[in-house]
């Protein structure tokens, strides 16, 4: 049985702090904004979809906040943002695709997608 006295716990925490910081961190982040009169009244579902997937299956999902903002991190497939598109599901009948072709995150800063204005 291990005796986890305060000294042993301190040594364990110190050793964990030496692990690479990026070990479990995402390689990239993207952030975007949806604008429109209705945005404060209705969250919009936002999907991250691989552009080479004809079924357009979402690899990640989120929703806009009350200011219309959303964010995605690297879904862990080892692909750059340009391999994906963002699909805004405004209503069951209205979806808007947003290309990430020219989106390039730099370092720790997230890439910003130009705002999308939706009229519905």
Short description:
By secondary structure, the protein is mainly beta. It is 10% helix and 35% strand.
Q: Give the CATH topology.
A: Immunoglobulin-like
Q: Main beta sheet: strand number and arrangement?
A: 4 strands, mixed
Rg, nearest Å: 19 Å
User: Any idea of the CATH class?
Assistant: Mainly Beta
Anisotropy-based shape: globular
- In terms of DSSP E residues, the strand content is 35-45%
Task: Characterise this structure.
With 120 residues, the protein is mainly β. The chain has a single domain (27-117), classed as Immunoglobulin-like (Sandwich), CATH 2.60.40. 10% of the residues lie in helices and 35% in strands. It contains 1 helix and 8 strands; from the N terminus they run αββββββββ. The strands form 2 sheets. Strands 1, 4, 7 and 8 form a 4-stranded mixed β-sheet that branches. It has a 4-stranded antiparallel β-sheet with strand order 3-2-5-6, with no helix packed on it. A hairpin with a 2-residue loop joins strand 5 (84-91) and strand 6. The radius of gyration is 19 Å and the shape is globular. The N and C termini lie far apart (64 Å). Mean pLDDT is 82; it is low at 1-6, 8-13 and 15-24.
Features:
Immunoglobulin-like, 35% strand, four-stranded mixed sheet, mainly beta
Topology:
Elements: H1 6-17, E1 29-35, E2 45-50, E3 58-63, E4 69-73, E5 84-91, E6 94-99, E7 111-112, E8 116-117
Parallel strand pairs: 1-7, 1-8
Antiparallel strand pairs: 1-4, 2-3, 2-5, 5-6
